[in-house]
Amino acid sequence: MPRALILTVLLSLTSPLAAAQSTAAAPASTLPAAEQATVNVINRTLGSVLYITATMPSTAQGTFSSPIFADPGAQGEQDSGSGFFVNAQGYALTNYHVVEGATRLTVNLRDSKQDFTARVVGTAPDYDLALIRVQGVPAGLIRPLPLGNSDTLKVGQTTIALGAPFGLQFSATTGIVSALERTIPTGVRQIPQNAIQTDAAINPGNSGGPLLDSAGRVIGINTLIFSPSGAATGIGQNAGVGFAIPINVAKRLLPQLQAGKTIVGPVIGVTLAPFELTDLTEQVRQQYKLPRTGALVSRVEAGGPAARAGVKGGTAQVTTPIGPVYFGGDVITAVNGQAVETSADLREYLFGRKAGERVTLKINRAGKTLTLPVTLAPGTPPPGTR
């Protein structure tokens, strides 16, 4: 069909007369109660969502320099994400990776054509969380979302994801809670942490946006998608497996974020071996009297919590393809009664604790079992974070 004819057909369908006839002929529709409830929640909550544009330092070199013409390379590179208001003072939560390295943050709201600027207040790089404050927003446009309880979620309950997938501002998708306590690598140091899995479509640009329950309460913060290479949807696109940071994690950190702190997980002051005990041969395990599972302590920080508790590091340096490795140190096999089979198990458990909290380590030392209490210390922010 010629292009001109297609346009004519489309225009005729939307002419005033056709619209009037269509309206007169079609009876008023009534949505099912459950569907109407979802519509109401989305309409009520989209006004609380932020479309965030982050300007980064440009890595491109301009083609010329002129006092008359702007150099596109000097404007900086831009990326976008989402966020949502958490209180009436204009504070909003988002992902750390949305604002990381940004020299300028611009915020758009659904019910305003104005651009607002925002500043970063506090960050939690290892948790992939950031708190920003939007400047100059009229009080009537600041609509905080109620924060729910992610500890009471059930697999199968309804989820609503809000955000700006691929820059399509103020979009909504629905799904269910697909799984709970799914462990995913999170934050700048990719530390394993629990997450909510949902099949609500989440794509690039949804990062930092809220995941809601059917009542419109925030139960999570969208952060990551699983997009295997070769999937029909393509790399970087939704494949029906999305993840959100449980809102209870953000609620616990919110007072420190609002106080302007950079939050990192607590530490015990050890360096763990860069491999798992299951990777070793039986001969090496027998030589150093190592168990089959656990977290092998390579080095102990002088004066740190583990050193004060009596944890021992390795003394025998062995050259390997991955660098020097120290054998002969303690193996942590449990923490507070919870089994530690891998180094990731220990990191994940400690990351959910607080600095100043005491934990009990079960140690295998050359075949002997010891129990050592350790008081956790504040961690050090990753290089380049704020």
Automatic annotation (TrEMBL):
Gene3D superfamilies: 2.30.42.10, 2.40.10.120. GO terms for biological process: proteolysis. GO terms for molecular function: serine-type endopeptidase activity. Coiled coil: none annotated. Residues 256-367 form the PDZ domain. It comes from the Bacteria. PANTHER family: PEPTIDASE S12, PROTEASE DO-LIKE 8, CHLOROPLASTIC. This is Trypsin-like serine protease. It comes from Deinococcus aerius.
